[in-house]
Design a protein that fits this description.
The radius of gyration is 20 Å and the shape is globular. The protein has 8 helices and 11 strands. The chain folds into 2 domains: 136 residues, Jelly Rolls, CATH 2.60.120; 76 residues, Winged helix-like DNA-binding domain superfamily/Winged helix DNA-binding domain (Arc Repressor Mutant, subunit A, Orthogonal Bundle). 35% of the residues lie in helices and 21% in strands. A hairpin with a 2-residue loop joins strand 10 and strand 11. The strands form 3 sheets. A 4-stranded antiparallel sheet has the order 1-8-3-6. A 4-stranded antiparallel sheet has the order 2-7-4-5. Strands 9-11-10 form a 3-stranded antiparallel sheet, covered by helices on one side. By secondary structure, the protein is α+β, with helices and mostly antiparallel strands. One of its GO terms (cellular component) is cytosol. One of its GO terms (molecular function) is DNA binding. This is cAMP-binding domain of CRP or a regulatory subunit of cAMP-dependent protein kinases. Keywords: DNA-binding, Kinase, Transcription, Transcription regulation, Transferase.
Amino acid sequence: MGAAHAVEPQIHKPILFTAGPRRAMTDDLKPLREHALFREFDDDDFDYIVSRSRRVALGHHQLLYHQDMPAQHFYFVLSGRLRLYRLDASGVERTLDSIAPGDCFAEVMIYAEPARYACYAEALCQGQVLVIPIKIYQQMLEQHPEYARSALRHYASRAVSRFHELEIMTVQNARDRLVRYLIDLLPENCRRGIEVELPLPKCLVASRLAMQPETFSRILAELKNQGLVRVNRSRVFIPDPMRLVAISQ
């Protein structure tokens, strides 16, 4: 039997990474100032990081970077939403995560060696990201141990979150995976009926939960028939969050 060979991914979506003018801090950068990776910075250091960063405008389905590309930057979402995904050996896309305004991503590349992006980053709609040079940030961490400690606390928090996501994905029952996913969209300690928005199109949520779109639609219809949810396109109303939590246990 011959050795299996990975299929070379065919990239049809253009990669947008155009240099733009460096700009001073604006109101839409205030969430960056409050992010765990930057909140310990003094004003001069923060202003310096911003001055060495640049904005990139992304169009619908625009790729910011691709899997295995050398990593020289990490990113902060100013507007819009992005999807992170990988291609498996057969060339099938596997959705990993969705990234919203106020989120940093690819920040693990700060400590990676060699630094190569582990997935693709694709814009789901028009938006902007701030492109932050990894080397400049590394220099800040080396000069200021308190910044490094803050960054490590951020990584620890992310690791706990990833373990939780891994726990969800190891559930064999597709219905339980979807229920737990919906619960994760709820605000903390939510007990009253609330409407949440799916962060990804339904077909991509299905991919994120390792199920076929048809299976996702069928399970969502079952939950609707049981009075657990009401669905209006990408919005899901959960009339009794505690009932949803109860069936997940």
